[in-house]
Design goal:
The chain has 425 residues and is α/β, with parallel strands linked by helices. It has 14 helices and eleven strands. The strands form three sheets. It has a five-stranded parallel beta sheet with strand order 2-3-1-4-5, sandwiched between helices. Strands 7-9-11-10 form a four-stranded mixed beta sheet, with helices on both faces. β10 and β11 form a beta hairpin. The longest helix is centred in the last third of the chain and has 26 residues.
């Protein structure tokens, strides 16, 4: 199933988005509703709250006096932390049970006001943030909730800042306008991203990716996007993951590239790579079809050293190549070295960009990026290899150290990215 984390600041319009997603067919799990459910009379949750705050937080009929409890914890970080330590685990346990009971081919949306504050983003395939400017939110609270502007700002200050929420978002729904405009945005998100993503997950297939290479200006958000994906991958298969890195052109600041994130996942051996393949598929990264499992560079003395498993994205909104390699292998080492060389050497960046543009012009009308990748190969062999080796000798570069076999000597050609549509960008 597709798991969506939905959040937004107070008065952002998150409830409108949640309601529309439910109408479209999603199973919506409301964390606020669960927070009330787990402290109903007779529940273990309410008993724990009373133990922590005394019977003074109860109403005359034994229920939780929410205004009184709120007054105790609001503005008191220590007391709020105690309350959260009781409520949050119970809510997560109940939410997990509801999600497990949902249709396996469906879309489950967890509506979590404090998703960012509690660091839960890595538990979802996507985080959707409903956003509105602070001034708009204050105005809404004053008009519709009859709060003073000062009280509205105090409520906002008790939550994560707007920039922190936006930084955690894979999708931002702008709600600075009308409710109808927000609903329309939700409809588009459902039709073009969520519904096809859910179907791709069920079928364990890649999102369609066609067309030749299109270079785009460097996007300063690429590293943050990669970091969110890396966190999800670690959560999916942590025991077998020795290393996870953002590689390729999108990992080099200022370098134009295809809008495809290249990630490299390091494992102990190819048996581990095959073992975690189903977990990666469930996380949104199925195996790329039609690729020989051991895809070596035949020109190398020991081509088996270039083996990898290649996964791609099921999400139609974010193209990703996930290269699974053995830590310490030549292919693993090359991807890191090439990235770091380009980051450090402005002349190398300029030369590589010129080559990328030349080859992109040749293959702009292609139906895949296979020709683009193949035509770059000669540049790596004849132009880049010796310069990168000299840079390594000059700087003393070494790959990161992990609990894995020792890295092999630096190879002299491009990583095995010549499979159609899978070239590092």
């Amino acid at each position: 199933m597709l798991k969506i984390g939905l959040t937004g600041g107070i008065a952002s319009g998150k409830s409108v988005a949640a309601s529309r997603l439910r109408e479209l067919g999603a199973v919506v799990i409301d964390a606020d509703a669960l927070a009330r459910e787990v402290v109903e009379p007779g529940t273990p949750g309410l008993a724990k709250v009373v133990d922590a705050f005394s019977k003074a937080v109860l109403t005359h009929d034994g229920g939780l006096d929410r205004p009184k409890l709120g007054a105790l914890v609001f503005g008191n970080p220590d007391r709020l932390a105690v309350l959260n330590s009781i409520i949050h685990p119970l809510v997560r346990e109940r939410a997990a049970a509801l999600a497990a009971a949902a249709p396996k081919a469906g879309v489950v949306v967890q509506d979590i006001p404090l998703l960012v504050e509690t660091g839960q983003g890595h538990n979802f395939h996507l985080v959707v943030v409903v956003d509105a400017p602070d001034a708009v939110r204050v105005q809404r609270m004053v008009q519709h909730r009859h709060m003073t502007a000062a009280d509205a700002r105090a409520r906002m200050a008790a939550q994560a800042g707007r920039q922190d929420r936006l930084a955690a978002a894979d999708v931002v729904l702008d709600n600075s306008g009308s409710k109808e405009e927000l609903r329309d945005a939700v409809d588009r998100l459902w039709k073009f991203r969520l519904a096809p993503f859910a179907e791709n997950l069920t079928r364990r297939r890649l999102a369609p990716r066609t067309g030749g290479p299109v270079l785009t200006p460097a996007n300063p958000d690429w590293p943050a996007q990669a970091a969110r994906l890396i966190a999800r991958l670690r959560a999916a298969a942590a025991p077998d993951i020795l290393a996870l890195d953002h590689v390729g052109s999108t990992a080099v600041p200022g370098l134009a590239a295809k809008d495809v994130l290249d990630l490299q996942l390091g494992v102990e051996d190819m048996a581990a790579a095959d073992r975690i393949a189903p977990l990666l598929a469930d996380a949104g990264f199925p195996v790329w079809p039609g690729i020989v499992a051991d895809n070596p560079k035949p020109s190398h003395p020991d081509p088996a050293d270039w083996r990898k498993r290649l996964h791609g994205n099921a999400d139609p909104g974010r193209a990703v190549n996930l290269h699974v390699r053995t830590v310490g292998s030549p292919g693993w080492q090359f991807a890191l070295c090439f990235r770091d060389w380009l980051r450090d050497d402005a002349d190398a960046r300029a030369d590589y960009l010129a080559e990328k543009r030349r080859v992109a012009r040749l293959h702009g009308v292609d139906k895949s990026t296979a020709g683009y990748a193949a035509d770059k190969e000669a540049w790596f062999t004849s132009h880049a290899a010796a310069r990168m080796e000299a840079w390594v000798q000059r700087t003393g570069w070494e790959p990161p150290s992990y609990n894995a076999p020792e890295p092999a000597s630096l190879p002299g050609t491009e990583p095995d990215d010549t499979t159609p549509g899978t070239a590092q960008s």
